[in-house]
Amino acid sequence: MEAPPRALDLLPKVDLHCHLEGTMRPTTVVELARKNGVPLPTEDPAELYAYSSLDEFLAVFWLVQSTLADRDDWARLAYEAVTDSARHGVVHQECFVTPARHRDGGQHLGAVLSGIAEGLDAAEAETGTTCRLIVDMDRAFGPEAGRQLVEELVDLRSARSPGTERVIGVGMDSTELGVDSTSYAPAYDVARRAGLRLTGHQGENSTAQQVADCIDALGLERVDHGVPVLDSAVLTARMVEERIPITVCPTSNVVVAHCFDRLEDHVLPHMRAAGLLATVNTDDPALSDLDLGREYAAVSRAFGWGWEQMVQVALDGIEASWLDDSEKADLRALVAMTEEPSR
Ligand code: HPA
Ligand code: ZN
User: Fold this and answer.
1) How many angstroms does the Cα of residue 340 sit away from the middle of ligand 1?
2) Which residues contact 333 (CB under 8 A, 6 or more apart)?
3) Mean pLDDT of 247-271
4) Which parts of 51-106 are beta strand (E)?
5) Alpha-carbon distances of 195 from 137, 183, 322, rounded to whole Å
6) What is d(CA 32, CA 115) in angstroms, rounded to the nearest whole number?
7) What's the confidence (pLDDT) of residue 45?
8) 283 lines ligand 1 (CB under 6 A)
9) What is the mean pLDDT of the chain?
């Protein structure tokens, strides 16, 4: 029987696939758009949040991104992201930020990261929820822009620029259509040499072969989405064997990329039954009217997973994180202290 939603909201959880810009509250979208002179097609941005495809979603995501004009805006976004997720039991998150559009518009990566860090510092002090950053390359801008972004990030880290201490890895997101993601190998090489962890969105709109090619060519340690992995027995066996995590975003795969008509049709149960380290995450919570507590409740309801199974989902998220062993042990202890709800 499914677990009670309130208990799942309180269960300590990690979110490993969440776009910082996709956490922006609708009220903040409106206020920043006004402040920065960005025209919005409607004063109720939630009206925009219905998508028939990933690329249609990305147009809205880019509009939301365009409201972020200065360091203070990034600080506000980051503060609100963590205080909002903490209210739903998130104790640790590894958030993407995709600053290609902002760099193109003249913002400096150093200012973006230092603004985000200021917001995260304040939110962490208030909530205890930790947040680390994954700087994502935007595939709409091409592999050379991606390489330049990673080079700049590595230079800023060497100079100990504020906020870079929060960055633990790099990734890539945005469109998959007509893109050969293996062309991002030079950027990933720069990141690997600098000791950054490596992930990437693949398999939201592409095949199992493309996921396998990315693991081989880019050295991905995690795969974001990875929806078609089960289509390849060889890839599945490899990911099980090497415990390469998949950061699955079940609701997003229904309402953003339309990989499935209903949550009940999602392959997540088959992934987990096959032994894959498939975790549950939000993707763009504010743009799909979601939080991780509600996502756990939706998954529990759709697949009939009870408390023990949902606790295991939470523990798998901790395993898949890029925390060190003692930090993981601390989070596992938090989960273990959570009592099974009485009915
Ligand atoms: N996929 C690709 N790009 C994105 C996403 C996503 O789910 N969210 C924000 N940018
Ligand atoms: Zn995503």
Assistant:
1) 34
2) none
3) 97
4) 90-97
5) 17, 20, 13
6) 15
7) 84
8) yes
9) 97
Q: Is the CB of 13 under 6 A from ligand 1?
A: no
31 vs 188: CA distance, rounded Å: 36
Single-letter code of the amino acid located at 277:
L
**Tens of pLDDT along 22-80?**
999 999 999 999 999 999 999 888 888 989 999 999 999 999 999 999 999 999 999 99
What's the whole-number mean pLDDT along residues 172-192? 97
- Taking the C-alpha atoms of residue 212 and residue 254, their distance in angstroms, rounded to an integer, is 23
Ligand 1 pocket member 174 (CB < 6 A): yes
- β-sheet bridge partners, residue 96: 19, 134
The one-letter code for the residue type at 318 is: I
Name the DSSP class of 2. Answer: P
State the Cα–Cα distance between residues 339 and 136, nearest whole angstrom.
37
Other Cβ atoms less than 10 A from the Cβ of 229: the count is: 27
Contact 17, 35 (CB under 8 A): no
Report, as residue numbers or ranges, the catalytic residues.
204
Long-range CB pairs of 302-306 (<8 Å, 24+ gap) are 302/250, 302/262, 302/263, 302/264, 302/266, 303/264, 303/268, 303/269, 304/1, 304/2, 305/2, 305/3, 306/1, 306/2, 306/3
DSSP state of 139: G
User: To which H or E segment does residue 206 belong?
Assistant: none
In this structure, the dihedral spanned by the alpha carbons of residues 100, 86, 73 and 204, taken in order and rounded to 10 degrees, is 20
Please state the atom number of ligand 1 nearest to the C-alpha of residue 252.
7
Strands of the 246-248 sheet, one edge to the other: 201-202, 223-225, 246-248, 278-280
Give the Å distances, CA to CA, from 288 to 80, 280, 282: 16, 15, 9
DSSP state of 283: B
